[in-house]
Design brief:
mainly alpha, 5% strand, 84 residues, two-stranded antiparallel sheet, 4 helices, single chain, 2 strands, globular
Length: 84
């Protein structure tokens, strides 16, 4: 997982060039680290919204749906940051 990191401002994986968070990163995130990852991913999603000029809904799906958050949780996270 260590090489599967995002490259800004394109938000592609430095290792596999897939859109980040890439499938390898998603699969490698153990459940015990997911709560911390949600906080980090939320901030990264907000950055990606600005860098890629994307809709918040698309970034919410891309950055947060693979975590154990519900759709309502994901929406609340982005509302908290003012991006919904």
């Amino acid at each position: 997982m260590s090489d599967h990191l995002p490259h800004r401002p394109t938000w592609v994986c430095l290792d596999c060039a897939d859109p980040w968070p890439c499938p390898t990163y998603r699969r490698s995130l153990p459940p015990s680290r997911q709560p911390l990852a949600v906080a980090v991913l939320t901030h990264q999603a907000v950055d990606a919204i600005h860098d890629l000029d994307e809709l918040p809904e698309r970034m919410r799906r891309r950055f947060l749906w693979f975590t154990p958050l519900t759709e309502a949780d994901c929406l609340a996270v982005l509302q908290e940051t003012g991006h919904v």
